[in-house]
UniProtKB/TrEMBL annotation:
UniProt keyword Transcription, yes or no: yes
PROSITE patterns recorded: HTH_DEOR_1, HTH_DEOR_2
Protein name: HTH deoR-type domain-containing protein
Pfam family, one: DeoRC
UniProt xrefs under SMART domains: HTH_DEOR (SM00420)
Domain of life, per lineage: Bacteria
Amino acid sequence: MAAKDRIQAIKQMVANDKKVTVSNLSGIFQVTEETIRRDLEKLEDEGFLTRTYGGAVLNTAMLTENIHFYKRASSFYEEKQLIARKALPFVDNKTTMAADSSSTVMELLKLLQDRSDLTLLTNSAEAIHVLAQSEIKVVSTGGELNKNTLIFTARKNY
């Protein structure tokens, strides 16, 4: 079996079982444990799994973090607006705040658009877009844009 096919099969097994062991995979694919460790290292570099002693577990955050921003934004929309309204009194005057790319945070930022005394540090392209016409000072972390999540991330050097 080609390495590419083996890695794809390992991905499927991890997705189904949530965890795998090096010794089990070595037996299934009839390759050395060192080969399996290298395969798992590649999948860990992709963010798909986390290597553990003797195996690996599924990185469940990876499954949810690549969901398109606008799909996340439309889920539980009323609840997100309620949370944003309740959080609004906690934003002090003349404050600097950091905001990630969560869709709940976007609802709060929409409520803050008329403020002129705030500075926002963000990795979110959507936050930059939402506040582009406001008086809020927006500072971006920069990086490579993930077009699904609308997040700027550090570029991985390979």
